[in-house]
Design a protein that fits this description.
Elements (H helix, E strand, L loop, with lengths): L2 E4 L6 E4 L7 E3 L6 E3 L17 H22 L26 H16 L3 H12 L2 H13 L12 H14 L1
Antiparallel strand pairs: 1-2, 3-4
Helix pairs in contact: 2-3, 2-4, 2-5
Length: 173
Amino acid sequence: MAIEFNCEHCNHLVKAPDEAAGRQGKCPHCGGVNYIRRPPEDGGELELEPLDENEEQRRRQQAAADAAVQWKLLHERNVPGEPGGRGGAGGRGAPPAPPSAKQLASLVVRYVESMSQGKLAQADEVAEQLVRYRTQVASLLDEMVNEDLSAYGLGSLPRPVLMGFLKQLRSKL
C-alpha cells in the first residue's frame, strides 16, 4: 500500500512506496524535497484513563488558592523591608513614615486641580489625606504662597483664584 501526502511546496498529491517512510523524497511535479511520514499504526484510538473526581476537585481548589495568593501579592501596598512595609516574621513593622514635602506638595497640587475642575468630592478626599499632616502642610502652604507657583504646574490658573484655593485648604486644616 502506498503512502499518500500533499507536497509541501506545490500541494500536489504524491504517492510514495511504503519503503520510503521516514525518509525524504523529491516531488515528481515540482522537485521540492518532502519528508515522507510513516503511516499511522493500526492500534486504533488510545483509551483514556477515567478522571479521578477527588483529584480534579483538589486540583481546582489548589488553583483557586494559588490565584488568591497571587492576587493578594499583586495588590499589596506595603512592601516588606521598606519604610511602612510589613517587616519580617514578627508581624507588624514600624508605623508608616510621614510623607516627604514633595509628596505633600503633589497632594496640594492635586487638591487645587480638583477644585479648578469642579471635582469637589475628589478635592475633599485629598484634603482629608492632608489633614493628617496639618503642621507640615501649613508650613508648605506658607512657602507656596511666597513662591512662583508655575514651578508646581499651577501657572495656568489666575493667581487670585489659586490663592483662594490655597486659603480654603488652609481653613480645612
